[in-house]
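Lecture 7, part B: from sequences to assemblies.

Below are the input chains for today's worked example.
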Amino acid sequence: MSSTPDQEFIHDFAIMSTFGATDGGGVDRQAATAPDGAQRAWLADWLTTRGFRIEFDSVGNQFGLYEFIPGAPYVLTGSHMDSQPLGGRYDGAYGVLASAHAAARVVEGLHRSATVPKFNIGVVNWFNEEGSRFKPSMMGSSVFTGKLPAAAALATPDARGVTVREALETIGTIGSYPGPQPAAYAEIHIEQGRTLENEGITIGLVESTWAAEKFEFIVHGDQSHTGSTIMADRKDALLGAALLTVFARELSERFSSRYPSAPLHTSVSEMTIEPNSPVVVAREVRLHLDMRSPDQSVAIAASDELLAQIPLFEKRANVAIKQVAAHSWGNKDYQRQGVKLAMEACEELGLTHREVMTVAGHDSVNMKDIVPTVMLFVPSVEGISHNEREFTRDEDACAGVDLLARVITKLSLGDL
Amino acid sequence: MSSTPDQEFIHDFAIMSTFGATDGGGVDRQAATAPDGAQRAWLADWLTTRGFRIEFDSVGNQFGLYEFIPGAPYVLTGSHMDSQPLGGRYDGAYGVLASAHAAARVVEGLHRSATVPKFNIGVVNWFNEEGSRFKPSMMGSSVFTGKLPAAAALATPDARGVTVREALETIGTIGSYPGPQPAAYAEIHIEQGRTLENEGITIGLVESTWAAEKFEFIVHGDQSHTGSTIMADRKDALLGAALLTVFARELSERFSSRYPSAPLHTSVSEMTIEPNSPVVVAREVRLHLDMRSPDQSVAIAASDELLAQIPLFEKRANVAIKQVAAHSWGNKDYQRQGVKLAMEACEELGLTHREVMTVAGHDSVNMKDIVPTVMLFVPSVEGISHNEREFTRDEDACAGVDLLARVITKLSLGDL
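Predicted structure of the full complex, as structure tokens:
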């Protein structure tokens, strides 16, 4: 008895989830680590078996290419296979496998119906979307779309000083392929929120991004003895960082009561503390502070209140707080015709759907700036993400693959 | 022209300060690192040249022994040569070199006057007083005084998993010597505070320790996406840790206005954050919280207020805060007859002096529990310590060596 396409997808997804599997049911598969390398080899094998040609570009983006018309541009579809430390099985990996399955089905269907599409079809596994090992996140698609020079990406070190180039050479997934000429892009991802689950809807049609205000601060203090130094002499960088952290949450609480319809999400989740000794007042703390809202004016107002507060924190902790980087974006739209095409595909398949915004960044945020892009979500159970307990039900995952195949078919025929 | 004893001391101290020297004028010579090993070899050579026999015990305490009476107990004098990361040149290292110079002078003086003392004389360089690489601090003297089993110390890993035993074997300073039988102990150290400098006094006679309440907490949260997770679903361990950090300072501010004569020193200076990623809400933070006061009732009252506050922090950050270790001590006295002996030595040398308390822990805090112990301070400029700019003026450093030699002479003759 042969298996159904859904069963094959579930089977392959279970195999993928073994690369970097953790005891807690998740994966730890940071960019260009051994499990990332092993999974890339597995994907290469899977795609090659189905007639796709494998290429790596100079920053380790992995392409599986199927050429119908020599020299024609490609409809690309993909996501990323790297994860956060102790991350979930679905974030990114689901989208890459969905793309591979959908692309293979489309190729097979076009051959079966003797249809020559307008564009070639390619699967892409973007390098280092997560940014946990190498910063910034979305590195591979940023280079591909011309937003980040390849040389800068390759020279980026991880916390132990290993560069992207060295790490990619170690796992052997670096090449000289210049990359396919894209005609359109499609990506599917788990929602990482609760909207779809709460409303019992299978598909999210992503129409825009939340606005974000992201800061990197360095708090400059001075080392001293935690016991004997009198309080007035202390320049406590960790106290400065803690004041920023608590205030970020306070801003969220304050704005959420002011503007209940446009929540403000805030967080500080990473600190680099020097010297980080139990008996030495910290001389320096480097931290990221992240604020996001569906309404850009809310994010900007919160950002203003934060910056106005900093002199008070500097005085209380006797430190200097320097803003070393800021990264902000407004509500960025995906192309309307892409949302419409995906909506039609949902209707044809009888899938429930609604338009949504994405809070998280995705490689499609880069791709939509160079080609028409379709971004799709499937539900996340309880909205849990970046966590070993991340979960999407099999029927939703399989419905997403069906939809993606239909979207790729339309895109390959030039419907956009 | 031969150099004076003071010039020799200053010369040798300059040599010592080259081991692990940093660009900022300090030292980075954590326990059982290569610079610590090199300095121990230098000290062994220095002492051997002056007729001392070198021994290492099973946890890397280094002894330089001079035997007048075979089998008699030893007057021990010493401190530690390990430093904090980017620490100062004086903390510990000054006391070991002062001990070596003072002991050598006393030995020479006793021989010159053909005096046979009551006790032998030994110099000790305690292993891992700082506790920055291996916890707990004061490890070597804790094992020597029976407070910590040697096996537990040897099995202690650093942050990279290297154990004390492995690190000591790497630098070759581990032995099987059981340790000398102590009769008395003397230690000299920089004050690491401003009392002596503010009052223009050369010598601090340490009569007791401040009380301390030290906590180790683990804040348990859960990983989630910093962008897309709705605020109500977040279990933010770093927010919990930041609330504790800010509240520790608030306690110090509150108590210092209530009890101006008994200041409360508080700090959080180290956090271990998991996974410490800019896009993942922290699932766990481990931190130390330290509170000290010259008045134990103040430290205990502050500790009570802290613990009463924890349920509010747990609720606000949606986390569980577990106290995994607590370490507290009252105002512990040094033996009065030791303070008196040192005061008489000051008077004989014409050195200004006053009784002081020590806020910081020292190996002498362990030693005073097993033998009569004399603890001496010399001034720290601006009270700066655990910092590359730590400084003590040459005249104060040399006066301290003179005083220590006189104290050791008295102790070796059985004056205590």
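Note for the exam: Residues 211-329 of chain B form a domain with the Alpha-Beta Plaits fold (CATH 3.30.70.360). Keep this in mind when comparing with the next example.
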